[in-house]
Amino acid sequence: MVEALNEPGLSIVVPAYDEAERLPQTLERIAAYVESRPFTAEVLIVDDGSRDRTAEVVREAGWRWPDVTLIQNPGNQGKGYSVRNGMLHASGRIALFTDADLSAPIEEADLLLEAIEAGNDIAIGSRGLRPELIDIHQSPLRETAGKIFNLVVRSVTGLPFKDTQCGFKAFRREAARAIFSRQQTVGFGFDVEVLYLAKKLGFRTAEIPVRWSHNQGTKVSMFGDSIRMFTDVLRVRWMDLQGKYRS
What we know:
Layout: E1 10-16, H1 23-35, E2 41-47, H2 54-64, E3 68-72, H3 79-89, E4 94-98, H4 109-117, E5 122-126, E6 134-136, H5 140-157, E7 168-172, H6 173-180, H7 190-200, E8 205-209, E9 212-213, H8 224-241
Parallel strand pairs: 1-2, 1-4, 2-3, 5-8, 6-9
Antiparallel strand pairs: 4-7, 5-7
């Protein structure tokens, strides 16, 4: 990974809402990963209006790791808003976002970076290509709902991916800026819009199987958020038909 002078090779964006308890361990793992790799990186923690000590934890971490930066949303806006905010602030040649619980181990980023170095503009982690890599599964109800959601996504948007919702995706900087500057979905359904925009803008996307473990502390509501995600898929298609993505 070739880097320009004073430019990090990788930006790692972590959306965080009430993550004060998990973040110290997460930052330790990310720091260990970066220190063992031959490139520099910045870590952007996007605080989505947390009610706990998330912001304080990040500021304290900044004393140990100067490349850790806190970005604060204006109140609680949603995961999609947080990821967009972080990705548009990223200065690395490649920008990757990952969940605060590291459901996909940060070391799996090597696979996404390899796919981009091989010529892809975007590489997305997938639980659907090799289910045997899932160490801890979601409940049968959640997994069934996920499969139904994926069928809806494929039929409505034409996206070919087995898994659009894994929170582990990497983008060349140019692709990230083109896509996230157009993103309008602020909730959990934003991944579909991001990948739809990537396809519309002609970016090459690779789906990469990664190790993954379900975390019991997930913030996604089984019913409320799931319904909004289905609605978001239809909204993305409707916005495109109305020409909202042209500029």
